[in-house]
Amino acid sequence: MTTGGKPDTVFIDGQTLNLKMLVRVARERARVQVAPQAWERVKQARACVESIIAKERIVYGINTGFGRFSEVMIDSPQLRVLQTNLIRSHAAGTGPLLNEETVRAIMALRANALIKGYSGVRPVVIETLINMLNAQIHPLVPSQGSVGASGDLAPLAHLSLVLLGEGEAQCGGEVLTGKEALDRCDIHPLELEAKEGLALINGTQVMAAQGCLALDRGMELARTADAVASLTIEALRGIRDAFDEKISMARPYPGPGIVGRNLRRLLYGSTLTTSPGQLRVQDAYSVRCIPQVHGASRDAMAFVGDMLQVEINSATDNPLIFAEAEDIISGGNFHGQPLALPLDFLALALAELGSISERRTDRLLNPAQSGLPAFLAYQGGLNSGMMILQYTAAALVSENKLLASPASVDSIPTSGGQEDHVSMGSVAAAKLERIVDNITRILAIELLCAAQAIDMVVGGRPGGGSHAVFQRLRKEVEPTFTDRSMSDDIHQVAQLILRGEISRAAASAIGPLE
């Protein structure tokens, strides 16, 4: 969202951030500002930390080493060095870099967690992080290296290096050193005080950011899947009775009810759909059970959304400072298990959208099932038509089956056995991103085939919503009369889906899809 051509502002207070707000920061580059009332909690927690230091109390994370070194006491003159060394030593990630929108989401989530007032950092730490985000200084963060317990230590350390004027960042389209990037935007590098290094890297913000952005895309994919399926139903002369409201009311899960309503609206006015016995008594499951399958995925997404809503407004570092009681308690809020399980669940839910889509694609291409020309080819034999699109969809579905295997059942102890159970939530999040990409292309393939099939159906007209989807596709991709490479077509349609243009096309005719 923008105001006057400039990004709008998202206010954070540690308690009320939601998915839409985060997406505005990550994808639309909205600015972030701390709600004024939130600063008091931050100041109180910092005063508590400074009191502990002054009294020379021994407290983990403030004047001790970390992990297996938690029994090593650190003298006060070395506390700054301790925190800086922590960031440098933990910046040991590897692999491809996280994309900018993910990095922006991580930065916003980390600031929101710190502003809750349980971490004991000075206000300047949060201010510097937000100033970097608003200046569009995006640290280069390797995607691999977190095991999802003690938080996303390695990637968050790479992000935090730039706060210190170290590491590297994207700024103004260039890769700069952290110091160069800060200097360019007139931001002073941080000199960390006690507890602040640990507070910056102890947390689940990497997997949470990836999960939130995947969920946002997944919700768009669910709407798109309904729109695409409506066109397939018509091309196959599907039986509309399967989407009757009475069926969903007899088994009143929310998701199937939503999908049934979407399909009825998309298909309204269609003369291509049929009645039982008109062509066949029942349709195959991939057509008849669309509300139940798509709907179950939607219900899973709703559950994951509730979990993420809690997570992105939580304090996830350690130890936590409870200023009112002047207490500091070491626990395990950094552990990624509350996210690892839902992210694995989301991967399963989204993979199923692709699995059933590929089955519908196969029905469109198989003349024994569709009643249409084999592989939707004109002059079949001379032309192979869309035969290989199903191969590609099958390959992506098969890959998703492997990627949907849960990461959260795995654990490899770290830190000399001190951290002897880890969540692997970061692995779950990374696999989820790949699944989302695959589903986008699987749905693009179904839409290409459904549109080609509609061109071949003799007589009848589509419903208002499905026809709008068909017309939007045809603005980008022509029918395939003679064989051509389809890779560019898949990419073009996938981009339409990513931008939300397929669901918006349906909405232009029938109102927003749920």
List keywords for this structure.
514 residues; 3-stranded antiparallel beta sheet; mainly alpha; 2 domains; 55% helix; Fumarase C, Chain A, domain 2; disordered N terminus; Fumarase C, Chain B, domain 1; two-stranded antiparallel sheet
Write up this protein.
With 514 residues, the chain is mainly α. The protein has 2 domains: 2-203, Orthogonal Bundle (Fumarase C, Chain B, domain 1), CATH 1.10.275.10; 210-315 and 326-411 and 423-510, Fumarase C, Chain A, domain 2. Helix content is 55%, strand content 7%. The protein has 20 helices and 11 strands. The chain has helices spanning 19-28, 39-55, 79-90, 100-114, 123-134, 153-163, 178-184, 196-201, 205-235, 245-250, 254-267, 285-288, 290-311, 337-365, 367-370, 387-403, 425-456, 464-476, 487-498, 501-510, and strands at 2-3, 6-7, 9-12, 31-34, 94-97, 138-139, 142-144, 168-171, 174-177, 320-322, 327-329. The strands form 5 sheets. Strands 6-8-9 form a 3-stranded antiparallel beta sheet. β8 (168-171) and β9 (174-177) form a beta hairpin. The longest helix is centred in the C-terminal third of the chain and has 32 residues, at 425-456. The radius of gyration is 26 Å and the shape is elongated. The two termini are 20 Å apart.
